[in-house]
Every structure is written in C-alpha cells, then in structure tokens.
Amino acid sequence: AGHWGLAQPMADVMEYNTQLREEMTRLGSLGYAGGTVAARPGEGVTIHEPGAASAGLRFFMSGHAPGAELIDPTGRVLHRWEKSYEDCIAESGLPADRFQPDHRRVTGCWRRARLLPDGGVLAIYEGHGLVRLDRASNVLWVHPGACHHDLDLDATGDIHILSRESQVVPRLHPDQPVLLDYVTILSPEGEEKARVDLLEAFENSVYASHLQFRKEAGDIFHTNTLEILDDRTGELGPAFAAGNYLISVRELGLIAVVDPRRPEIVWAMSGMWKAQHQPTLLDNGNILLFDNLGHGGRSKVIEFDPLTQEVVWSYADGPGTRLFSRTCGSNQRLPGGNTLITESDNGRALEVTPDGRIVWEFRNPRRTGPQDEYI
Which of 52, 195, 306, 371 sits at 20 to 30 Å (Cα–Cα) from 75? Predict the structure, then answer.
C-alpha cells in the first residue's frame, strides 16, 4: 500500500552528459512524417473555372522530393528546380562537418522555398540548412544552420529566416534541453549578420505571461511563420511598424509581432485558433490565418481585424466544404479577391471566391504505398 514510483539510479556525469547530448540531437532533428495521409480520388487539376480562377502561375512544392515546380492553371509544368541535401553539401565548398547529418531523412523534401526575381530559389531543408540555387538548379551558396519553416526578404535583399538551437536553460528547466527559436539574418550571399532571440523578446515584453503555457522542455515554441511588415501597416499603430516581424508560435497558440531592434514582443493575440499557421497581413490591414485544429478539431481559414478581433471572412470545414490539415497549411489572398488555400497534409490546394465557391483545385499526383494510397 502507499504511493510508489520507480527509483531512478544516480547517473554519473559522463552518462548524464551523453543522454543530454542525445536529447539535444533528437530535438534538433525534429521533422515531419511523409506519406501518412490516405489519398482521395483524383489527381492534378480537378477543378478549373477559367475567368473565375486566377490566371497566375503556381509555385508548387511536394513532399516527394527536394524540389519545386512552376505550373500553369491547367497543371502543366513549365519549369522545375531540384537539389538534394547531399548534393548541396558536396557542391557547397564547405567542410562536410559543418552540416548536421540527416538521420531521420527529413531533408527528403524542401520545407519552404521562395521564388526569386532572377528565376532562382531559396529553399529550406528542415532543421538543416538553406540553399540558394540559380534558375538551372546550380548551387550558389549553402548556409548550414538549423533553419526551419519559413523565411522572408527585406528591401536590401537580406534574408530573415527562422532557426533553432537546443540547449539547457536552467530558468526554464534545470536539466532538460529546450528548443529555442531565433530569427537569423543573412546577407544576400548567405553570410550570417545577426540573430534575434525570440525567448528574449518574450521575456522583455508585457506578453511574457504567455510563457506560462509552454511545455516544460522540448519544442516550447515551434515558430512556423515569419513575415516582415512593410509600410502598409502604419494605420494599425506603432506595434505594426515597418521592419517588425509577424510570427506564429504554434505551441503557445499565439501570433505575435516582434520588434527585432529591442528585441521585444509588441503585440500578441490568441484564442480563435489552435495549432495555427501562416498569419499574413493583407493590404486592408486585416490578417489572414490558417487555423488547423480550432474548428471543432477541423480546419478553417479566417480573415480578421487585428485591433477589434472581428472576423470579416472565413472558409471553414463543413458538409460541403471539406478542409483539414493537422500539421501544416497555408493561405494567400490573390489579386482580385480570391483566396488560395494549401491543405498541406492532404496534398491539396484550392482557390475559393469571396463567397466560398471553389474555382480551382489541385491534388498532388505523387503517390506512394502498395496501392498508391498515400499522398
């Protein structure tokens, strides 16, 4: 009888340090599983209403390979970029030990890429690095940092990218490592110029109380979106000044604005979403956001006023409007007023009109499994 627990033997210093290093390595290699969602019927462009859908080209990435494609509204591939992580290491001109090994095969696809005006791309290998390719997929340079999730460019061409580091922070946990998020600033040539500590930004601010909702250890932030604000935001007040960052912190259920010069969180909001992605500021001063799990465990996209919190538009999962992506997702307001939604986990993209009508839909044609049942 009584209250019992397993007695833990005292580890010597060497064993403790080995275990700690292993946990730090594990945290630093967190990635996403691929091919885990059953595919629905249809592939490629399954809905297309010319005249109603955007005539613009689509820059498309798939979880099947480290690359991207430029496709037209019919799904025809116009151009393709591709470069493996191993080839980046070999072609970088840097010592191989500068790069983190990929034990979990998370570099088998690009996590995020940005198409550049010269036809080249910047591409993130989740947790492992950033590469800049020219339009023919030749390596221009590689940054071997623990980059993840998202990046943005400022007017000077500097690259602002999410990065992370595993370390023990005694004030957060006495002996377990946490995964800290940063914004690393790189020159157009890939040289590191500065780094903004997001934990410090929270602790410096009146929003520090949000840290009470974090995990004790491990991936305490999981920041998944980074957008540099520009001059459109003046009417929203000083918190939304040009040069500040709009970020999404999934593990805190929070979107926030960071002043990187202090650094300090100067605005934050939570409550209408869960496990969210891709907040983006629109020309009208509203924010568009992909809410993964806050719609009764399903997904929705909402446009809301960041000052009044009024929801002015939404597209939500329902009987005639299926929408669900558990771990990833994106949204973009297009010229003309339609919204492009990426239902990432289901390998699906859809363009919807302001009244919620689907005028373009694309289902990833790449499949795997014994019956091609995974997308």
Answer: 371
Are the C-beta atoms of 133 and 140 separated by less than 8 Å? Answer: yes
pTM above threshold 0.85: yes
| Residue 57, amino acid | L
- Measure the CA–CA gap between 190 and 93, rounded to whole angstroms: 13
* DSSP-derived secondary structure for 250-266: GGGTEEEEEETTTTEEE
Distance CA 79, CA 68 (A): 9
Q: How far is 140 from 121, CA to CA, in rounded Å?
A: 10
Q: Is 303 exposed, middle or buried (0-12, 13-18, 19+ CB in 10 A)?
A: buried
Q: Check residue 332 and report its DSSP letter.
A: E
How do residues 258-303 score in pLDDT, each as one tens digit? 999 999 999 999 999 999 999 999 999 999 999 999 999 999 999 9
C-alpha pair distances (Å), 148 with each of 59, 107, 188: 19, 11, 18
